[in-house]
Structure formats: structure tokens, C-alpha cells
Amino acid sequence: MFWTTLATTLLLSPGAAAIDSSALACKTMMTDHLPLDTRQSPLDSLTFTVGTTHVKLCYGRPSTRGRVMLGGKSVPYGKLWRSGANEPTMIHSDGPLVISGLPLPPGSYSLYSVPDSKSWQVIINRSITQWGHESSYTEAVKAQEVGRVLVESGELSPPLETLTFIAEPGAGETVNLVLEWEGTRVPIPMQPGS
């Protein structure tokens, strides 16, 4: 499923009232330097529920193409990453969530990370209009961070060529948003908020 174009996009402001989940849409940044039909990393989305909250994740899906990505030159350990390709990875929810202990009101957020070999920092940010490249994570964007959480990473076998997010049930009402790529698996626990 590809992202919708900007003309048909509805993004939620943090703290927005709950809306029909069909209105949750992914946003593309139509740029002259990277039109949709020339991108090497396809755009995708994942829709799931956490309790009664509808969540949509929008992300670019880079492939390794023979390169070492996680821990390599393109996505080095200990450095900020957009958690995908092109635009930053985005989370849209029509209800409150708790992501690894971090409460979030309904809204739209960018999701960045700082990968490492054993654990990842996951960064939730209110800023949703910047281009995803790490150089666009300016001090003004950083000032809009909601918070950072630490999650454990594990091994994935067999390895995956293309970055993939999946949603898996966890204990109780927890849903794990799982990033899988190469030989790495990173579950990010999500629970209903209040």
C-alpha cells in the first residue's frame, strides 16, 4: 500500500479529538529532487489497533542491496536514524497510546531511532513536516521531542533484505510494533493510553 498524496492527507495534531480511523492517512513530501516514481525505497504503511485506538505507521522500505546497513556506513550504530527511508517514519493514532512507558495523546508523530547492537533508543517527535534525512533533524526539530525510550533488540533469522514493520500481540493489551531488517528485530511495546 503506497502513501497517499499530500492533497488527500489528513494528519492529526497532538491532542486532537478522536476521529474515524479511515481518516488516518500517510503523507508524502512531493519534492522535485525525489519524485515518487524514482524512489528506490518503496513507501508502505501498517494499520493495527492497540485496545480501541487505531494506529497507522507510514514508512519508506530501504533494501540492503548487498550492503551492511544496520551498524554500517548508511545506518551507523550510535547515530540518529529516521527509522526508514525518505520521509521520517510516522505514527498516526486516533486515541491515546503508551509507547514503552511514554504516554502520547492522539495525534501524528515522527519516529526516529538510535540503533545499537543490543538496544535501540526510540525517539517520538511532534515535528512531522521535515524531510527524514538525519541532517534535517535540526535543533528546532529536536526541541519538539516528546521523549526517548530504550528498547532491547534481538536477532532475526533468516535475515530480511527489506526493512519491514509488523504488529504482534504481546502480554495483556500490549501490541509490539516490531522493526525487522537484516538480522535485527526490535520490538517496541505499545499499550492503550488514558
Number of helical runs? 1
Radius of gyration: 16 Å
In which order are the strands of the major sheet placed? 1-2-3-6-7-8
Order of helices and strands: EEEEEEEHEEE
| Mean pLDDT reading | 85
Would you identify the regions where 5 or more consecutive residues have pLDDT less than 50?
Answer: 1-22
- In terms of quaternary structure, the protein is single chain
Helix content: under 10%
Write the layout of secondary structure elements.
Elements: E1 43-50, E2 53-60, E3 89-93, E4 97-99, E5 102-104, E6 107-114, E7 119-125, H1 139-142, E8 145-152, E9 154-169, E10 175-192
Antiparallel strand pairs: 1-2, 2-3, 3-6, 4-5, 4-10, 6-7, 7-8, 9-10
